[in-house]
Amino acid sequence: MASSKEDVASQALARLGEPAISSFTEDTDAAEKVNQLYEPTILSLLSRYQWQFASKRAALSIDGAVTPANEWGKAFALPTARTEIVGNPYRVYNSTALRAPEVFEYELEGRHLLTNYDTIVIEYTQRKAESLWPGYFERLACEALASVLALPITENASKEEYHAAIAFGTPAQGFEGGLFGVAMRADHMGDPPRSLLDESDPMTAARFGGYR
Known about the structure:
By secondary structure, the protein is an alpha+beta fold. It folds into two domains: about 5-50 and about 130-190, no CATH class; about 55-125, no CATH class. About 40% of the residues lie in helices and about 15% in strands. It contains six helices and seven strands. A hairpin with a 2-residue loop joins strand 5 and strand 6 (about 110-115). The protein is elongated. The two termini are about 25 Å apart. The relative contact order is 0.16. The model is unreliable at about 190-210 (pLDDT under 50).
């Protein structure tokens, strides 16, 4: 399993027949291209699917320094963009209770969630460190990065197409085949269905440790 960005980037470069890098800031053409393209590629992968391994549930705090200028009475601060949260929250609750119902009476404005609720809990995709990636996502990331780096580094369009097909499959598959499809299935199998996580059932609560 990768332990750093440099490990992932070097694996991607190896797929292109290029030497490894030790730093994104070293004085090489490969490192310069990697430095430009690495993070946008990873964030794009994380935003393409609701990865369970990167899912996080967090209670937000009210930002007392912000007064909403519309009908909402409270402004909750969202996690730091890009370094913590990828995209927008995909579920919002007004309670920390297990199995709390999802709510929709809110508005996102910049880095704040505006609402009239007193409590806000969100589920979102977190930008996990490379050392925490499961193997299926690491393999996908390496191939996706290889496809992105192929043209600017090797100037070989065939390599770009080859690695893109390995990563995402074909247009007929909606680009959800290849390692992306494998990763989605593995990620789904690694997380219990939401319907099983019912606090009224002590067996499922004990098995899965409650709703996360």
